[in-house]
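Ticket #4471: complex job returned nothing on first submit. Input attached below:
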Amino acid sequence: MRTLLVGLLLLLATSAAQAVDLQGEELARYHALNAELRCLICQNRSIAESDAPLAQDLRAIVERQIAQGRSDAEIKQYLVDRYGKWVLYDPPLDSATIILWAGPFVLLAVGLLVVFLLMRRRRGAPTPSPSLDRERLNRVLDEQARDADSDSSEERS
Amino acid sequence: MRWRLVLPIVIVFALIVLLGYGLTRRPDILPSAFIDKPAPAFDLPTLASDRDRITVDDLKGRVTLVNVWASWCVACRAEHELITAVSRRTGVPVVGLNYKDTEADALRWLGRYGNPFAVVAFDPSGATGIDWGVSAVPETFVVDAQGIIRYKVVGPITREEMNASLIPKLEQLKAKGS
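Support reply: We reran it on our side without changes. The output follows.
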């Protein structure tokens, strides 16, 4: 998957105008890093996709630092020091990003819990069939009959 | 059971509040990575000078305002008057950082609109801008007497922001420094 992505980016890069003085593995790292870094101006694109002047500058910095032999982690740290973790499309797990990482799973767990509770209630307690209270029914019927009698006697008198 | 009626209303209301909060935020304004950190080092020529240079050490010793600007930046023109006013009202000197500009354009801009800067550092490549984490001009940094960045405004300052936060912040730092 990762090699596929890098290969795709290499393909894209051949069409890009910017000349890069890197070869082989370094070039692959360059494109992989650019895809992971967020453009500060057009905020929903990586610096590989963006043509904003700042993105061009940042690509140049990535290129220079790779040429100087810096590691990916060092280059990322260099940019995080300046722009905050915000520049990383793949932010590290820490106290500030825990909601971001754990949020979807917490919501999923809550949803499953609700579904589970609803299902258990439906199965465990089937709606009771209305049982006939004969005694009460007879009492009510008697009362109605008596009322009807007295009504008719009133009418007669 | 009453809670069955009330609960959906409560949930929808909470969602509305949450979404409303989301709408009032400005996602394009990023928190600075530099608040309460030392101002990043730089060593730049001053505008229109062959010899004079300005370094980060020149910011130490008193509260300063560092304003990143460029002649091509329309929003810089909009805040120009307020930068001048802040400096006049608080007595805090403004150090300009001329970002990705040409000397001729920068000088013409200062000539036309007036020069609010005590000194202007000239950064045509934008390298110092990157070291300061500048993503878009204008940006304004408050640097205290120890050279620590204490506050930052991204984008043009507004009159409300100037009165409500920038000037009080400067006065507070000045009082602490003396």
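The two ends of chain A are 99 Å apart (CA to CA). Closing as resolved unless it happens again.
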